[in-house]
Amino acid sequence: MASLNRSQFLAGVRAELPILVGVVPFGMIFGAIATAGGLTPLLAQSMSSVVFAGSAQFIGAQLMAGGAPVLVLLATTFVVNLRHLLYSASLAPHVQQLPLRWRLLLAYLLTDEAYAVTIVHYTDPHSPPAARHWYYLGAGLALWTSWQISTAVGIVFGAAVPPGWSLDFALALTFIGIVVPAARDRPHVGAALAAGLVAVLTFAWPYKLGLMAAAVTGILVGVALESRRPRAGRRVAAEEAGP
User: Fold this and answer.
1) Measured between alpha carbons, how far is 43 from 49 in angstroms, rounded to an integer?
2) Taking a C-beta distance cutoff of 8 angstroms, is the pair 111, 140 a contact?
3) Which residue among 98, 100, 182, 221 is buried most deeply as judged by most CB within 10 Å?
């Protein structure tokens, strides 16, 4: 059993490695922006360790640098991270049998990138059910470790990175790489296109509310397209997705 757990852990790490190509520049940018905005290196690094949520950290650091009220800071970061409710609801049936200590650890490690590879593994009928949480742990820890290191590098060397490199675009490429392989049928494609369109149209909304509008739109469109699909087609899709 120990050998199976170790192999699943390493498989999770390997699955996360390609995504880290976009995450590492993102962490470096956060470290540079946070310190440039007035945060101490210790506080900037602590945000990556405690908050561990890239988009919320960026927005939080900018709001703190601008002297925003605490309530605005809390409300904004809360709205931005609401998508994690969808992730956790999706993963809950797969981890509910685990001990509390495992569920707490995996909840802390839940991110966009970790979820993307983990949910595919959980729904793979060929993956070993008894050790799937070790795969999740491997993916989550790989991301956590790279995020801490890249934040530290950004804090120390961020000012030396030329602005013309536009490293922030690496994050957009990362998310495109996550979404495109998952869009395998009409509901997935429709949800992605609708959410993307709304995100562009609501880009100027305050406090990143456009992100929530895009997420809700994508969910509604996906559910609507799924409900219109013939029942036989839904059954085949469910069988292909696994348990």
Assistant:
1) 10
2) yes
3) 221
Q: Residues, the chain, total?
A: 243
Closest CA to 33 of 135, 163, 211: 163
User: Does the CA dihedral 119-121-123-129 come out positive or negative?
Assistant: negative
Q: Look up tokens 């290191």; give the residue.
A: 149
For the whole model, what pTM was predicted?
0.74
Phi-psi region of 52 (alpha: psi -120 to 50; beta: other; left: phi over 0): left
Please give the Cα distance from 71 to 152 (Å, whole number): 28
Q: CA-to-CA distance for 168 and 163, rounded, in angstroms?
A: 10
Contacts of 85 (CB under 8 A, 6+ apart): none
How do residues 96-112 score in pLDDT, each as one tens digit? Answer: 999 999 999 999 999 98
d(CA 98, CA 1) in angstroms, rounded, equals 16
In sequence order, which residues have a C-beta less than 8 Å from that of residue 112 and are 6 or more positions away? 83, 87, 175, 178
